[in-house]
Amino acid sequence: MKERVQAALARLSPRDREVLVLRHLEQMTTAEIAATLAISEAAVKKRHVRALERLRELWSTENPDDTEEYR
Description:
- The chain has four helices and no strands.
- The protein is an all-alpha fold.
- α1 crosses α4 (41-62), α2 (14-25) packs across α4 (41-62) and α3 (30-37) packs across α4 (41-62).
């Protein structure tokens, strides 16, 4: 599972990967991410949602048998 998640993350754009890593791996708050990236908190939230959507799309394409389990 870990390798499949890493492979899906690797296929994301650097911008998408960055916000997901900061939020989920580094466990930074929205405010901390905004300060780190020098963008607004609203922009962080938007990027985060869009990055999750793209990750979900990649996951469902590459792992069709696992898709329903994570919805």
